[in-house]
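Example record

The entry below shows one chain as it appears in the dataset: sequence first, then structure tokens.
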Amino acid sequence: MRRKDVGLRNVNYMIFSAGILLVLIWLFSLVTYGHDQYRRGYNQGRLAEQQIQQKAQAKQQAAANKLSQDYEKQKAENEVKRDEQKRQITKIVKVPVYSNVCLDASGVQLINQAINER
């Protein structure tokens, strides 16, 4: 008996289509699983980055608050010093400081002139 060349003529197209469909479903499930894994990893990475940024922002805010407190403290100290200086100058100008000091007339005149020029 001689064998005939079968080729694709005697192929059961229903079984062939079902096989191709199963392969496509399997590939789709692999792609979907891979995409889910990617999305899960991406979200975890994004969450970790947000936490790092929040910690850095909190650290910067704490540093800014400390600097602000230091600035306000220094500003208050400078204001107290400035008020003390103004009061001392006012007292020195109003009180005749050199009345009991032995100076000649030209020295007293120079001192009084300096006081009046303020």
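Notes for this example: The first helix runs from residue 13 to 94. The mean pLDDT is 81.
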